[in-house]
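DM from R.C. (forwarded with permission)

"hey, sorry to bug you on a friday — could you get me a structure for this? deadline for the figure draft is monday and I only need the backbone to look sensible"
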Amino acid sequence: MICLFGLLVVFNLLASRCHGACAEVDSLTEAVAGEGFLLGCISCKRREEVLAQSTVDWHFKPLGEEGFRHIFHYNHPSAEILHEDFSDRLQWRGTITSDIQIGAIYILNVTFNDTGMFRCSINRTLFLPQYEENVLVEKEVELTVVAVANRELAEVVSEIMMYVMIVVLQLWLIVVLIYCYKKISGEQEERDARKALKAQAGLLESKDICDTVQLE
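My reply, with the result:
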């Protein structure tokens, strides 16, 4: 039973790694000047089987200003940078189909002028059996640009816990495999011993029959 449970746990771990389901995760908010940065934007469909077509727009409001600037537009398969401040500095890193669930973009060579509020807008058309439905999803990322990366305590703790869990799971798996090996080996030895005793009993019985025949 323990062996079966261990194998099921391992299978579930592998399946979770390979599963392609959408999961909404917030974007990081701190970029380092002079480096690249991924602006995340994920909007999952509630029903994966429903066909959809989406476009993505990114707007930016610099720190201290009131209005947003339209900086990027994606309509599969074409991407368009719409503001000169981001010319040749934006790359599409989202879904490479018209059914967009990930609308991320990558900023090359981040500058301190990129500090501010970014807004991602996913305009989705759902093709339902009886009609079409338009859905607008907006997500905002308040970006801070620093000279040197600052690792937050929560990030460090999460990374440590991740490695600890990996080590613990590996050790637990080794223990389960050793236990299963010993159990299977023990059961095999018991079967072999029973076979040997049965064979020995058969030989003794045959010998007794032969002795009886000779006496008669």
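R.C.: lifesaver. Confidence is low (pLDDT under 50) at residues 1-20.
me: no worries. DSSP finds two helices and nine strands in the chain.
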